[in-house]
Design brief:
231 residues; alpha+beta; 3 domains; six-stranded mixed β-sheet; three-stranded antiparallel β-sheet
Length: 231
């Protein structure tokens, strides 16, 4: 599988035009900043710097380095500017492009927690709004999967996403859908404007009475308010 990288192609082309190595580095830096702004502005955290892009017949990989000078400990909430000497690399799958799977390979910094009472002496900086700590997909990719599933179902969504180049299973899409549904129901439960309450029985698996549930719905807006196991 032939892999091409952006820096290699870019620097080779400029060498042929008689640019010096220093000039190439400066132009390349500007090029990466411009691509970040136009392709991922408002999506990727500001403290990440795009270093390179690789592409083969199935995937595009964007390589990012952290330029942060401080980070908040996720365990105690204290800010720290004491960097460790090692890093943590993590790939996150994003929305596919041009029939190819897209991955962000993010090199994040590790910090020492300065709170003496915190049980964790070190932590890895987080990517809030971009990807959860234990996730292998970006937040927006998960939402994209949910949107596709709401249109046609999880299995058709899987097939459509794979045709687009993404690597995801219908089981994963179903998990994303359940998480988003739970958040929506939690939000609906906080509403205080429900005037007409509708109650119904459903089976989560068709024909299987053991999966029966009671569903409470806002009759006027058709929002699901609560799902209770049992009928």
């Amino acid at each position: 599988m032939c892999t091409k990288d952006w820096y290699g192609i870019f620097s080779t082309a400029l060498h042929k035009e008689c640019f010096t190595q220093g000039e190439i580095q400066q132009i390349y830096k500007i090029e990466m900043e411009a691509r970040t702004f136009f392709d991922f502005g408002g999506i990727v955290p500001d403290f990440l710097i795009l270093q390179n892009i690789e592409r083969d017949s199935k995937k595009i990989r964007y390589y990012w380095d952290s330029r942060s000078s401080e980070a908040m400990c996720p365990f105690c909430g204290m800010m720290s500017n004491k960097e460790c000497k090692d890093y943590f690399d993590k790939p996150l799958q994003d929305i596919p492009q041009g029939g190819l799977a897209v991955y962000h390979v993010v090199r994040r910094k590790k910090y020492f927690c300065e709170n003496l009472n915190c049980p964790h002496t070190r932590f890895v900086e987080r990517l809030d709004g971009f990807g959860e700590e234990t996730a292998r997909k970006t937040i927006r990719f998960k939402k994209y999967c949910v949107e596709r599933a709401l249109e046609n179902g999880c299995k058709p969504a899987e097939d459509a996403l794979k045709r687009d180049g993404a690597l995801v299973s219908n089981d994963s899409i179903a998990r994303y859908l359940k998480v988003e549904s739970a958040k929506q129901i939690e939000s609906n439960l906080k509403r205080n404007d429900v005037r007409v309450l509708a109650i119904d029985d459903i089976n989560l698996r068709k024909g299987d009475k053991s999966t029966g549930c009671t569903v409470l719905i806002d009759e006027e807006t058709h929002r699901v308010l609560l799902i209770i196991r049992g009928t």
